[in-house]
Write a structure and sequence with these properties.
Layout: H1 12-26, H2 28-35, H3 41-67
């Protein structure tokens, strides 16, 4: 539960802004969205695995660019069509 104590001589808008920040950091909206529909545990695990694979591939790609800065400039050519 997110609570905000309104300080002396503090405007309502300022207190509301602090509340919104605390609410966002607490992840209340994210949790509401995840609990809106039932998701099977197997689906949750599958999505987590997909997310991990994407993250690993992305990190490998970034690491490759760090090790070989010219790699970003190298473009692959499309194979040319054979003419008969």
């Amino acid at each position: 539960m997110v609570e905000v104590q309104v300080r002396e001589k503090e405007s309502f808008e300022r207190a509301l802004r602090r509340f919104k920040k605390m609410w966002e950091r607490a992840g209340v909206l994210r949790e509401i969205r995840t609990r809106a529909f039932y998701e099977k545990p197997s689906d949750t695990k599958r999505e987590a695995r997909k997310k991990t694979v994407r993250r690993v591939k992305r990190l490998a790609r970034i690491e490759a660019l760090r090790n070989n800065p010219r790699a970003s400039r190298i473009r692959r050519r499309k194979p040319q069509k054979k003419r008969y």
